[in-house]
Write a structure and sequence with these properties.
- This protein is an alpha+beta fold.
- It folds into three domains: 127 residues, D-Maltodextrin-Binding Protein, domain 2; 112 residues, Dipeptide-binding Protein, Domain 1 (Dipeptide-binding Protein, domain 1), CATH 3.90.76; 207 residues, Roll (Dipeptide-binding Protein, domain 3).
- It is built from 15 helices and 20 strands.
- The strands form four sheets. Strands 1, 8, 9, 10, 11, 12, 13, 14, 15, 16, 17 and 18 form a twelve-stranded mixed β-sheet that branches. A four-stranded antiparallel β-sheet has the order 4-5-7-6, with helices on one face. A two-stranded antiparallel ribbon has the order 2-3.
- α8 runs antiparallel to α10 and α14 runs antiparallel to α15.
Length: 514
């Protein structure tokens, strides 16, 4: 079979009669809509903001809860529950907390909540569900709440990245008294936050409903209710948008972009993802334990063709493990090469004898995952690699991720959550973290050195050396950095964020008259 046979697997076309229906819907929209329906790819699995880093969960949690610091889509950091922050010593951060905040049950927010929220993620003396890995708050030695409006964070080393960390999910603040009273299970089922929306209900496998918080300190949002609907099928999400049954869909698959952009009532908003789509590798299993095999697999991928044909050019071919737009991204490096001849040579050097390589792919967890998997499997087979392609559902994928039970390679979409390599390579590839399927003593030493350095130029040099090691070892086989597209009704004004934060606050979202 021609390895580009996958290109003939066309996208679904616009259903007959759909365009006129869309036009009639748009004409009927004469008043501001008071309910926002968001169709996303999968179900919400956790409502505890420290319970998951999955994008489907975090879209909801980010609007139920506030972080201490907020990152806007342009990457800048702004006050949130903390109105100001400063380093008073090389290892001490002092935060002034907002005084006019109340939880959804009406009780006031204080520094006791902020202290508990950080402590529950790392301090074994604090009664908490251990959810996030040690990377998130490894720098924190202890916290203090000297008065209701002040939080002090003492770090084990000078942590220049602390404000960025506090703008991520680890900086989400929860009401300690409520959590203590009802327990972790009830809190996850009926969460109370301080954010612009309040929890109403969740129907597993279907939807999660939130109502606007009328007393939100940042001002009431522009709708009365938001419904997050689980719609795994990409084409169906687009159909819902075009029929007017959804107001915003994420992700919008590349094959559906043209019809959404062409319809009179809908539009597309895209942003270059602050992360990468990669094939993570279990290097403990043969033949993937040989770095020459992993190099061959990388060299055999025609990323330009994948980008052109499956993504309609919506993205870039990466040049390493640090995405474009990140701190320490080296723009002088060339894109990752496609060289099937060199791939065959690496296989020969490795003594490859046709051992099977297991490729476990989902179908819809990330855009184009199955189509890309089929294309890459053909490319690998072209250079002589035996591939066993297994399609697994998302629940199985999440279970394998928790149990570290992948058999070979699998899709991952690591996000650079603090716009620094420590928020991606450091967060996932360090010992004990989610992608701990590979160890390299020098890489690990450099990761710690970069994390603890107070010298930005030294950190940049350290990341260049880590990139060199990474591209020799390929613990991830980097595939592409996509543009992530959102489909919206034209009356929805919303700016997507590169790091998948989904902000429905007034500064980033409103619904206007059609």
């Amino acid at each position: 079979m021609d390895r580009r046979g996958f290109l003939s697997r066309g996208s679904l076309g616009l259903a007959a009669g759909m365009a006129p229906t869309t036009v009639r819907r748009a004409a009927a929209q004469t008043t501001r809509k008071r309910e926002l329906v968001v169709a996303q790819s999968f179900d919400v699995t956790s409502l505890d903001p420290h319970g998951s880093t999955l994008s489907n969960d975090w879209r909801v949690a980010f609007n139920l809860f506030d972080t201490l610091v907020r990152r806007h889509p342009d990457g800048t950091l702004h006050p949130a529950l903390a109105t100001a922050w400063r380093r008073t010593t090389p290892t001490t951060w002092q935060l002034a907390l907002r005084p006019d905040v109340r939880w959804h049950d009406g009780t006031p927010f204080t520094s006791a909540d902020a202290k508990y929220s950080l402590d529950r993620t790392h301090d074994p003396r604090v009664k908490a569900a251990r959810i996030l890995g040690s990377w998130w708050t490894a720098a924190i030695e202890r916290t203090e709440a000297p008065d209701p409006a002040t939080l002090i964070i003492h770090t084990r080393w000078p942590d220049l990245l602390m404000p960025g960390r506090l703008a991520s999910c680890v900086g989400s603040i929860v009401p300690w008294a409520y959590v203590d009273r009802v327990g972790f299970k009830v809190f996850n089922e009926r969460p109370i936050g301080s954010g612009p929306f309040r929890f109403v209900s969740q129907t597993r496998g279907d939807r999660c409903v939130l109502d606007a918080n009328p007393d939100y300190w940042g001002g009431r949002v522009d709708v009365d209710r938001v419904v997050f609907q689980s719609v795994p099928d990409h084409a169906r999400r687009a159909d819902l948008l075009l029929r007017g049954a959804a107001d915003l869909i994420v992700p919008l698959a590349p094959e559906d972009r043209a019809r959404v952009a062409a319809a009179p009532s809908t539009r597309v908003a895209g942003v270059l993802y602050a992360g990468l789509y990669v094939l993570a590798v279990n290097v403990w299993v043969a033949p993937l334990s040989n770095p020459l095999i992993r190099q061959a697999l990388s060299l055999a991928i025609d990323r330009e063709t994948i980008l052109k044909e499956l993504w309609r050019g919506r993205g870039v071919v990466p040049n390493g493990p640090i995405p474009r737009g990140d701190a320490a991204h080296d723009a002088s490096r060339p894109p990752l090469p496609y060289d099937p001849g060199a791939a065959r040579q690496r296989l020969k050097q490795a003594g490859y004898r046709g051992e099977a390589i297991h490729f476990e792919t989902t179908a819809g967890m990330i855009a184009n995952d199955r189509a890309m998997a089929e294309a890459i499997a053909e490319m690998w087979e072209d250079v002589g690699v035996k591939v066993v392609l297994d399609v697994i559902d998302t629940a199985v994928r999440h279970q394998k991720n928790r149990q570290q039970a992948f058999k070979g390679v699998w899709w991952s979409d690591p996000t650079s959550i603090i716009r620094d390599p420590d928020g991606m390579m450091g967060r996932l590839l360090s010992p004990g973290q989610a992608h701990d399927y590979w160890r390299h003593d020098e890489f690990d030493r450099l990761a710690v050195a970069a994390r603890r350095s107070g010298d930005e130029s030294a950190r940049a040099e350290t990341y260049r050396e880590m990139t060199r090691i990474f591209l020799e070892e390929n613990p991830w086989i980097v595939v592409l950095q996509p543009i992530e597209d959102y489909g919206l009704q034209r009356y929805v004004e919303f700016t997507p964020s590169p790091d998948q934060q989904f902000d429905l606050r007034r500064a980033n979202f409103r619904m206007r008259r059609a």
